Amino acid sequence: MPDSPAAPTHDLRLSVLDVCPVPAGATAGDAIADAVELARAAEELGLARYWVAEHHNTSNIASSVPAVIIAHLAAATSTLRVGSGGVMLPNHAPLHVAESFRLLEALHPGRIDLGIGRAPGTDGRTALALRRSADALRAENFPEELDDLLGFLTDGLAPDHPFASVTASPRGGDAPEIFLLGSSGYSAQLAAALGLGFAFAHHINPTHAAAVLRHYRAEFQPSRFAAEPYAILGLSALAADTEDEAERLAATLDLAWLHIGQGRDRPAPTLEEALAYEYSPAEEAQRLANRSRHAVGSASQVAARLRVMAEEAAADEVMALTMAHDLDSRRHSYELLAAELLGTRRAPAASAAGR
After folding, report:
1. Among 117, 116, 103, which residue's Cα sits nearest to residue 74?
2. Model pTM?
3. Where are the domains of the chain?
4. I need a labelling partner for 245 at 20 to 30 A (CA). Which of 42, 223, 228, 327 fits?
5. Could you tell me the CATH superfamily of domain 13-242+295-341?
6. How much is the average pLDDT of 171-175?
7. Mean pLDDT across the stretch 321-348?
8. CA–CA separation, 67 and 104 (whole Å)
9. What distance in Å separates the CA atoms of residue 53 and residue 66, rounded to the nearest whole number?
């Protein structure tokens, strides 16, 4: 294995990861409407793709069924790639996932990504409700489920497979582009062995991103899915016009991640609530520790950190999750980063009414 896999020769790409946050005082419908506006802005800015995560049993996230939101976002845009970041495969039958994404690809040819994860995306009881049995909850059969999914997507099940006579519908279409997602080395190794794209969640595990992504690139085996490795670095980023403004806006980010760490299911805090929150000494220590997950600052500061992180990880693309209470702040952060990283600019948009 080479010690230092070659970094990508093309320009760094920038994309959006969205969990469709539901701010305090808003509804899930408001969150999806925000996602539509953000996707349209991303397309206008020339961003590469827009992925939606899968989460369950929480009041502050609306993205419980990525395929439904993907269909809505793809219909509201025309060139932007839209996909899942990701579908948590153990929660679903492989045939169902294959048919959902074949249908999305039929509706929006050449624009659909299927990012696949193996975490539950929720708590244990909700995972049990999704999988319907304790045996399914305990099963360690992700590679087999993934093999079935890839077979259904490509009509490539082995002749002796129990479901060899089953074809995912609609028939005759192309498969979406396929990625594995992870926050450890396991999915990276599997993605490399199968010749799939890979996305690492730095905001979940900020410690090992560079080493894991470089290992993926070094071990990649060309396949029918991809001739070369493609590495995405998923991260949390919030940029503003000044460092002071970014720090002010990041108060909501800090408090939201504190609630996540405490297992508290609360709507995304307002900026006023976050600025007024009094951290205990233990909570302040946790807030400071969480900052390693996030790139916060002026546009130039955040862009510089993203470039360094991408270079260290030999990443082809950075995919930014931007958490702020209001849509305008989230959108402006992407505008600033697009200007710094891609050289693209967008006319200022009107504020989101009522939010």
Report:
1. 103
2. 0.91
3. 13-242+295-341
4. 42
5. Luciferase-like domain (3.20.20.30)
6. 83
7. 89
8. 8
9. 6
